[in-house]
Amino acid sequence: MKFATRPYYYASNNPKMQLINAKDVKFEYFSGFARERKQKSIESMHKAIKKLYPQAKILEISKASPNQLGQKLSAFNLKLKVFNGIQDITASVERFFQGSKVFNNGGPFEEIIFNENIHPKKYDKLKKGCNFQGFKLFGKCYSTEPVTFFYDWLYINALKQNSILATELENYDIFTDIEFNPNKSLSCQAATVALFLSLKKAGTLDKATKTSDEFLKLRLSVIDNQSLF
């Protein structure tokens, strides 16, 4: 029997001091890439959380989610429109995120955004990137600090554009992502969903996300207050 410890997330009641709440839970983990194995791990993780919060309504956000809403909210599936200076370009959040990466030896790789035949995380040029420098999308550079800023900016704007999905999120209290391992990755879609709900509940979502500069200002101000995020 193998166990794993992973974080789960829920909205903050005071986003001026702390953007989200994050806690770890230990559960039986089922190794393997098969969807069935991932869903067994999801079920195990949710059972462990339910022992702590019996009334909690938990949503897994990933391609492996047993819930259709959770699948639709995967960054690989959630669509976003971004103006490129000429027209609106529509692609998944993951394509925009990966296609905007810049390294010493290449990037951004906008072909990831436009070509659906390219896997956004397995693109050869991306894997060969050395010394990550930052993000650049359609000529605009984005801050690399806080480390999840650009990912959050893309994902939250996608939620704003997909209002029906965003509204459905309000039926849930806790969010998980079985694909996310904090020892290997930085950005987590479940965490960003909790952030979105924190801002929405506080009535500051539109102001905080009016521009990327406004959003960066918010992120930096809360970090100054020792946010867990």
What would you say this structure looks like, in words?
The chain has helices spanning 35-52, 68-72, 93-99, 111-114, 124-127, 149-161, 163-168, 189-202, 205-208, 212-224; strands at 3-11, 20-28, 58-60, 79-83, 88-92, 101-103, 132-137, 140-142, 174-176. The chain has 229 residues and is of the alpha+beta class. The protein has a 3-stranded antiparallel β-sheet. Helix 6 (149-161) packs across helix 8 (189-202). The longest helix has 18 residues, at 35-52. The radius of gyration is 17 Å and the shape is globular. The two termini are 31 Å apart. The model is unreliable at 224-229 (pLDDT under 50).
Q: Keywords, please?
A:
229 residues; alpha+beta; two-stranded antiparallel sheet; disordered C terminus; NADAR-DarT1
